[in-house]
Amino acid sequence: MTARAQRRMLNEVKKTPRVSARDLKKSLAHANISVDESTIRKTLNKNGVHGRTPRRKQLLSRKNIAARLKFAKEHLDVLAKYSVDR
Domain of life of the organism in this record (predicted)? Predict the structure, then answer.
């Protein structure tokens, strides 16, 4: 794999972090670059990009938001105690 192909692939991964190795292979094929999926994964790993699906942030329900707010309000005195001691 050429350096230009690597840069192209890394730029595409930066734009869309959820892209799969199969999709990267297809996009490189449009540029007449023939690379195997395992080579793509190895190249990304060498460049510090591990795995192709980042974790999604958990969505909070209204019930959980209310419970967190209640907990925070109940423990304001604990926070104030620590901030005064320091």
Answer: Eukaryota
CA dihedral 38, 39, 41, 45 (to 10 degrees): 140
What tens digit of pLDDT does each residue of 22-46 get? 999 999 999 899 999 999 999 999 9
CA nearest 29: which of 18, 19, 37?
37
- Backbone torsions φ then ψ of 4, nearest 5 degrees: -65, -40
Residue 9 near residue 28 (C-beta atoms within 8 A):
yes
